[in-house]
Amino acid sequence: MLTVLLLSAGVLGGIAPPEPVVAATRASAVLLPADLPADTAPEPVGRRPAVGQVARMTAVPQPAAAPSAEPAGSAEPVPGPAAPPAEEPAPPVPGVLPLDVDAGGSAQVVTVVAASAGATTAELTAWELGETGWTAVLGPWPARVGSAGIGAAREGSTRTPAGTFALPEAFGRAADPGSGLPYRQVDAEDWWVSDVASPLYNRHARCAAGTCPFDERAGENLLAAGAVYDHAVVIGYNSGGTPGAGSAFFLHVTNGAPTAGCVAVERGRLQTLMRWLDPAAGPLVAIGVA
C-alpha cells in the first residue's frame, strides 16, 4: 500500500500545473529580437482579435547564439532590407486667371471682377506668374467701379471699360509711395486731356491754367481733382487716343462712392499694389464680369 502511494505521488508530482494563458491585448506593442523567425512577427498596428477569439501569443524569445570564435572585424556585415524609394509629392495644380485673361508675356495681372454688368462694386486681386501657374499674391480686395457698371466705355459715360489693358505709369498729388512703375508727382499744371478735338486726347499734358492748347473745360486738372488722386495708376485703355472712345481711366484712391469710370480701392491697399507692380513683368489689368 505504501509503495502504491509513493508511486502515485511520484507520477503526480512530475506533472507541472498549466501556466495561465495571458492574452496579448496589443500584440503590436511587443518588440521581438532581430533573430526571431519571420513567422513570429507581431500583428500589424491597430489590428485587434475578433470577439470570442484569443489573440495570438507572442513567441518566447530564444537564447542568444554563442559568440563566434572568429577574431573581431573578420565577420562581414549582413546587409539589412533596402529602404523603399521615397515618393515624390504630386506637383500642384497650376493656377488659372479668372475672366479667361490672355496675359501674353505678362507675369503680373490685376483682375477686377464684378458680379454683374450693372454692379458698382467689384473684387480686385493681384496675380503673379510662377512655375506652377498663376498665384494670387494680393487681395481679393473690395473695389468701386463706374456708376454705370462695367462694359463698353465712351467719352461722357460713367462706365468702367471691360477688357485687358496695360498699367504703364503712376502719378499722384502726394509723394511717391515707392511705386514700382514710373511715378509723377503732379501740381497745378498737370492735366489729363479729354478734349476729343485735340491731338492730345487721352494723354497727360502740362500747362498753366488759361494757356493750355486744348479745351480746359474738357480736361481734368490732376491736382484739383482732390484726394482721390493722391495716388493713381494709369489704366491703358484707348492708349491710341481714338476720339470719343473714352479717356482718363485710372486705378485710384476710393472715396467710398461709385466712380465716373475708374477703379478705386482703399489708400493703403493701393500703395501696396503700386509697390508690387514691376515694369519688367509687363503688368496688366483685366476688368470684367463673372
Give your account of this protein's structure.
This protein is mainly beta. The chain has a domain of 187 residues. The protein is built from 2 helices and 15 strands. A 5-stranded mixed β-sheet has the order 3-2-1-15-6, with no helix packed on it. The longest helix is centred in the first third of the chain and has 12 residues. The N terminus is likely disordered.
Structural class: mainly beta
Determine the number of helices (DSSP H or I, runs of at least 4 residues): 2
| Fraction of residues in helix | under 10%
Distance between the termini: 109 Å
Radius of gyration: 40 Å
Which outline best applies?
A: globular
Look at the structure and give the mean pLDDT: 80
What amount of the residues lies in strands? 15-25%
Return residue spans where pLDDT drops below 50 for at least 5 consecutive residues.
1-62, 64-74, 89-93
Largest sheet: 5 strands, mixed
Please state how the strands of the largest beta sheet are arranged side by side.
Answer: 3-2-1-15-6
Number of DSSP E strands: 15
Q: Give the helices and strands as they follow along the chain.
A: HEEEEEEEEEEEEEEHE
Organism: Geodermatophilus nigrescens
Keywords: Cell shape, Cell wall biogenesis/degradation, Peptidoglycan synthesis
Region (Disordered): 59-99
Biased composition (Low complexity): 59-77
What features would you highlight for this structure?
five-stranded mixed β-sheet, mainly beta, peptidoglycan synthesis, transferase activity, cell shape, 15 strands, about 25% strand, about 290 residues, L,D-peptidoglycan transpeptidase YkuD, ErfK/YbiS/YcfS/YnhG family, globular
